[in-house]
Amino acid sequence: MNIAIPNNEKEFVLMMEAIDLDLRKKDVPTHARPIQGWLKISGSLNLSLSMFPRSKTTATPNSYIGDDLTIRIFDWFDERYGEKLKFDFGPGRIVLLIRGDPWEALMPKIFGTVEFFISASEKSSNQEEDLRLGRRPRCNILDSIHGLPLGLIHSLEAHDLNQIWKNFFAAFSSLTLMGNVRNQSMMREAMSDIDAAVGHFVRVPAHYGLSKWSSLQATEKTLKSYLAIRGASIPHSHDLLKLSSLAAQHGAQGLSKNDLDSIQCPAAIRYGEEKVSKSSAYSAHLSSIRVCGVVSKQLGNLTTETSGSM
Fold it and tell me: According to DSSP H, which parts of the chain are helical?
């Protein structure tokens, strides 16, 4: 498309409307349009724009070049789409039980090196400033827990913090491994099932039966994805022990029977015909994430081997 460097606000707005129309015609997701639009303008006009202006956050009046143009582009998309630009780029979300109550934790997307810590008094560093100043980001994992109030944070004791840390990082590792193989058969669906398990758990009222069933579905699909890449015949079964035994025959290792037993459940729980407790659904949730992580790591190794042999 033909665009020119704008000289005034009217020309800038016309350029942005044209860029946005082009992105919409190409079905670019809303959250991706600011970066895609910025890239389109920078490339089409043959400009070397910086995505992270270092010296300012507000555009200079009547200036439509350099950092001022970058600021104007992103401000335009912010004003046009607002909340629709928000998108979680992380590997997923989990449930954390804190003193018996469920809280939703969003796993952060990591670029480069990040220093994680857990503290009831210290906040995470400002990521925009970290990028602008070239310093290592510091992330307090309590800031990843949606809506966790200060009153509860300040009351957390050492054993509470230790349990949160343990469960958070076990899940972060597993979900990252799943994300690495998300393009394999059934893995995107498995990740969606884990997300559904969280949704059913934290909704009001909670549906622990549907949450546990979603945990089973995530585990089942991950095991079947492993069998698919191994070229094995995949049975039409929800029996995790049967599927894990078949996966083990094809080289899978480290599958915990205790975890599989914790996840296994009958289809009737979807309809409330069999009651599921909060603790049972939570155990299934954590066990499912662990099993999926173990299998995903081996699935990733198999994918690498297959790619390397081509």
Answer: 9-25, 33-44, 66-81, 127-133, 150-155, 158-180, 187-202, 208-229, 240-249, 257-263, 278-308
Mean pLDDT of 124-140: 85
State the fold for domain 181-310. Answer: Four Helix Bundle (Hemerythrin (Met), subunit A) (1.20.120)
Residue 98 sits at φ, ψ, to 5 deg, of -120, 110
Measuring CA to CA, how many Å separate 255 from each of 178, 181, 208, 307? Answer: 16, 18, 24, 25
Dist. CA 201–CA 184, nearest whole Å: 27
Sign of CA dihedral 48, 51, 55, 61: positive
Sequence spans of domains, the chain: 9-85, 89-156, 181-310
Q: Specify the higher pLDDT residue, 71 or 89.
A: 71
What pTM was estimated for this model as a whole?
Answer: 0.76
